[in-house]
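Re: the request from the purification team.
They wanted to know what the chain is likely to look like in 3D before they choose a buffer screen. I agreed to run a prediction and write the result into the notebook, where they can find it.
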Amino acid sequence: MARRTKEDAEATRNKLLDAALEVFYAKGVAGASLTDVAVAASVTRGAIYWHFKDKMDLFGALISRSALPFEAALDSALGEQKGGALRQLTGVLEMVFRQVVRDPVTRRVFDIALYKVEYAGEMQAVRAWRIENMERFALRIQVFLELAAKDAGIVLQQSPSSAARGLRAVFDGVLLSWLQLFDLEKEGMSAVQTYIKGLGFDVEKEFA
């Protein structure tokens, strides 16, 4: 019985996240209310507060649900260290580009995070949360770049932390400018590889 109750709670939580995805996408995060989400999910506001503290908590959970597979893939690649650190890192970045292009849910989550959030007022807490997550992502990239430089026997052309933030900026920038105007998978990876070449890696050799 306890297991069934837990499964029901998880199902309700996912139902709320699915509803939030549609409502935030249609109205923007600032323009949406928890009542809107409750109506879309066919539940009471009380059901939302059972699972989430407030709208910011709900938004954070929505972003985390889509980002979790990518973070897990990075952590898994770091633990396995098969095929070379640089290939593993770029493989995960390519997976994100591919998922954004091919999976409508992932694409909507990225659209919301990039274009439908005003980081002011009550959303300041979300801004701080996002900055923290971006820094954590950059730290993961830094570890991969340091390992890759060691594998290749090179010295990075800038400090590992700056190199990692720069690569993250390239990655974020391609996503931000995409708007379905170009081949994200092809041009996104081209931009990533061009930046990596500038760090001192022999791209032709690494990705032959």
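For the purification team: The mean pLDDT is 89.
Please add any questions underneath this entry.
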